[in-house]
Amino acid sequence: xxxxxxxxxxxxxxxxxxxxxxxxxxxxxxxxxxxxxxxxxxxxxxxxxxxxxxxxxxxxxxxxxxxxxxxxxxxxxxxxxxxxxxxxxxxxxxxxxxxxxxxxxxxxxxxxxxxxxxxxxx
Length: 122
Hints:
Blueprint (H helix, E strand, L loop, with lengths): L1 E4 L12 E5 L2 E8 L2 E7 L3 H21 L5 H51 L1
Antiparallel strand pairs: 1-4, 2-3, 3-4
Helix pairs in contact: 1-2
């Protein structure tokens, strides 16, 4: 789980993600589209770095296509694009799960029928 922590006034290096450890969660300082953020999370460093790079890349893409370069518009566009991807992936995963469940049920019925036929033949 990722929590937003209030921003600090000290500068944050855009090339690095700064980490502070408190209890079981770490605090990360980083930039998204040039804006500093501070997050507290229990995720490992590699996951946080991947998340930051992913969101930063998507925000920069959205900033490039917004007519006025508005950070707010880019953030909404990014959120809509990510929501679309998430929903489509969930639907695809659900369809795949249904196919696997159907196949498992069919295999189970085939196995049961095979056992019944073996008993009848003996």
